[in-house]
Design a protein that fits this description.
Length: 220
């Protein structure tokens, strides 16, 4: 899951990003509306956590543009104003959800996950392939009844593959979906993480490497 946090209060923005990364999400952060517009023009996000009061392009204008042109991207609008009128106003701009500050972080996570499910084609509550079972909501994965102790990146790679059974996903696609802006596009992060994931999955191997293509799980 790829998330963009647009919040001009840097301490809060970094705190939200750190917390969401701990939940296994790939998170980018920008601190003003102009930077948000540039980032949205080049990267596809599942969810944008968007402050209404931003320097540069306003959060309201960004929300309107997303509502009209990026149907696959969901918007969770943040604001210090929490009256019913403010919530109605925010939703009328095209926001998919609205959260007033201050908020409980657990609620923010739950709302981001709910919006991400709406941003993508519907998936079953658990993802399976043979004897592998992954539950995205509970952040658990099992093989033949044995719980897999996966790092956030290992879990994210397995989730990406199980969400597209039989399809070949390139290293570039996996890097975009499971890492954030800090990732070096020329690094071997996907390769090394895939190696560790395969070792934890054990035998028989279920992830196939497609020469000059990428990786695939399940039958072609």
């Amino acid at each position: 899951m790829r998330v963009l946090v647009v919040e001009d209060f840097e301490v809060l923005a970094r705190s939200i990003a750190t917390g969401l990364r701990r939940e296994g999400m790939a998170v980018d952060v920008v601190l003003d509306g102009d930077a948000a517009v540039d980032r949205l023009a080049s990267t596809r996000y599942d969810v944008v956590v968007l402050d209404r009061d931003l320097p540069g392009v306003s959060g309201d204008d960004i929300c309107r543009e997303l509502a009209h042109g990026r149907a696959e991207t969901r918007v969770l609008m943040l604001t210090a104003a929490g009256t019913i009128e403010d919530r109605v106003d925010g939703l009328s701009l095209g926001a998919d959800d609205y959260l007033a500050k201050p908020f409980a972080f657990a609620e923010l996570v739950a709302r981001v996950r709910a919006l991400a499910r709406r941003a993508a084609p519907p998936l079953p509550p658990t993802l399976t392939c043979g004897d592998i079972v992954l539950d995205p909501a509970r952040r658990t994965a099992f093989r033949a009844g044995r719980r897999l102790e996966l790092s956030p990146k290992e879990f994210a790679l397995l989730e990406c593959l199980l969400a597209a059974p039989g399809l070949v996903l390139s290293a570039e696609e996996l890097l975009e979906r499971a890492w954030d802006e800090a990732a070096d596009p020329f690094s071997s992060a996907v390769k090394h993480t895939m190696h560790r994931l395969r070792a934890k999955l054990g035998a028989p191997p279920v992830i196939e490497t497609i020469r000059e293509g990428g990786y695939r799980i399940g039958p072609a």
